[in-house]
Amino acid sequence: MDMQTASSTQTSPQAQSPDPGAWTLEKAQALYHAPFNNLLFLAQTVHRQNFDPNKVQLSRLLSIKTGGCPEDCGYCSQSARHETGLKASKLMEVRRVIAEATKARDAGATRYCMGAAWRNPKARDMDAVVAMVEGVKALGMETCMTLGMLDLEQAARLKQAGLDYYNHNIDTSERYYSEIISTRGYAERLDTLEQVRRSGIKVCCGGIVGMGEDPVDRIDMLVTLANLPEPPESVPINMLIPIAGTPLAEAKPIEPIEFVRVIALARIMMPKSHVRLSAGRTAMTDEMQALSFFAGANSIFVGDTLLTADNPGEDKDSLLFRRLGIEPMELEAQ
Ligand code: SAM
Ligand code: DTB
Ligand code: SF4
To answer: What pTM, to 2 d.p., does this model score?
Structure first.
């Protein structure tokens, strides 16, 4: 089934993706609103052309610097502007980070993602984060960091230290962004993504759904990502974890079928990227996760905690994987 026929009832022809940069909002909207079975069939077809459909990549997150963030992101437990009851901490010691990463590796994670509640790293922080990247890399894991905005010099230093991925989300559409965050703009996000790309680090960039946005905002976010000069290698789709004390604590949750449509559209629009079923899995049924994997999600965060919020534990995930016949992706296959 191709893009034109996704909204018809045909079921057999080959899936095709248009050229990079060729996505229009109209084309993406037509797919998003296509009959669910057609959308999922196309997404699964594209998925099989590019990946083993029964393999999912496992990453582990660690908050290396928690809370006290000067930014005002409306969803975040770590903003100093929200009364969330979270205790702020200093940057973690390098040897503790390496010890945590070793445990994660021994439990099967192949990528280690370190996050800091900063607007951007200060010059005085760089030696420590560089040492963290070098130490985790030496354990044989892939490394990922999310530290806020970067300039080219910082990105180049992290690349030299062995950083594989940098996570920096655009979160939503450009239109809706200013309703969620006022302390920085969409253009600044895109600028950091450009510096990361120029330095040769792989890009991890996605967003959050369930923040009260309209479907068009979700679709437009995916159009922006797919039309980047090179699409991100990794696309995290987070479902908002509502945090008491934040402006989005009472946001209307996204309906599960709509969520699966977002995953399917991301898979079709960025056929070679890892689509990551990120935050929010504790609020998903097994069936919603199974449909998300069918729609093309092939990466998750494992472990009891994300940065500050809960995640399904190792036991729950391995049981789900067993029931679905899914296996963890080996490092070489990523
Ligand atoms: N401070 C850095 C920054 O904002 O780029 C890095 C850490 S920040 C917590 C990483 C991402 O986590 C955010 O861009 C957002 O997409 C996601 N996130 C944060 N809080 C969330 C929540 N309550 N629910 C879902 N996703 C969330
Ligand atoms: C991403 O897109 N999701 C992860 C990772 N990148 C850094 C973070 C999710 C955070 C969820 C809320 C919390 O744990 O505080
Ligand atoms: Fe700070 Fe990042 Fe949270 Fe925004 S999302 S408040 S920048 S930690």
So the answer is: 0.94
